[in-house]
Amino acid sequence: MNLFEDLSQCQARREELSRGAVVLRAFALPDEAEILTALGEVVAEAPLRHMVTPGGFRMSVALTNCGSYGWVTDHTGYRYQPTDPDSGKPWPRMPDVFRKLARDAAATAGFENFGPDACLVNLYEPGARLSLHQDKNERDFNAPIVSVSLGLPAVFMWGGLRRQERPARVQLAHGDVMVWGGPARLCFHGVLPLADGCHHATGGRRINLTFRKAA
Ligand code: MD6
Ligand code: FE
Q: What global pTM score does this model have?
């Protein structure tokens, strides 16, 4: 048997959650080291911080951004902006390894030519969660969303187009990439409270990179 012959075993497994929503298992693993190095540089320039929702709640998830636009929230609302509200400076540029990963994942899921201009970096510590929501601050909904999971596994809630639909629970592990677009672009989604654990890449935390075409 030739161990190097069967390429199919290297290919990320592809799971379709609903029409337009695909999980690419382990898709980011080949780029793990490069991603973590680039992430360290982004976070050094624009530190992770807890933002406040328009309703006045401090988010349990800490966040930062890279790319031309960053997603922010404060008492006035949710929006994308070209500068970091803490420093007043532009967000760090999007590392090439991020841009390429997002483009390749989108294409593998059936969305060609994805050109993200915003990458939201989310840090989950144990207990951090994200309640069910739709991503609808972007200007047009033709582009998909690409979401990369790193570190501790999380339970992702994948719902429908109406909040009332009971969401499916999907485990997302280190290196998994989830892509949603087309008929799934406005589906409700969220993350259950992160469980304690220890991961070789991130310690006791989960990091999520979410790529969007914001403008
Ligand atoms: C995640 N994040 O962290 C998914 N959406 O796995 C999101 O869905 C998200 O963190 C809109 C705004 C901020 C987010
Ligand atoms: Fe979201």
A: 0.94
